[in-house]
Amino acid sequence: MKTTYSWKVKTLPPPNRKLIKKMLEKAAALSGLDTSKDWIANLMFAGDKAMAGINWNFLQHEGTTDVITFSYFDGGEVEPGDAGVDLVVCGDVAAREGAAREDSSYAEEMTLYIVHGFLHASGEDDLDPASRKIMRRREKEVMAVLRREFPLDEIFPSR
Asked: What's the CATH number where 107 sits?
């Protein structure tokens, strides 16, 4: 697995280039994606306006959201060198949610949205209460490992 990302959030500093690549690979593996294969995970970090546009153009949902996942594994194997996952993560939502929650931060929210997206790409769902409970448990498990192994506040500095 190879990762690429683009940073389109004008209100926040970009992530630590060295640390984010390692964290993305670990998050994908912990989420159940086969990182030993030759596929690409593309991430775009967007602000509210861009995220609202993507949300409408692709899903016909109005407004911004935290993360949108496009997984290309649904049809089976991905050809070597092709995109397996495209994630769009909203930095503005993460900043607001991280500031509003006592048990979170901007860096925690950004990481959680990535994990949530990778879990969707690996087949997890959260559309009904039973599957949502499983998704939340898996998020907690993956986040616990990432918190232990990576300095999330260094990967996603808030200023």
From this structure: 3.40.390.30
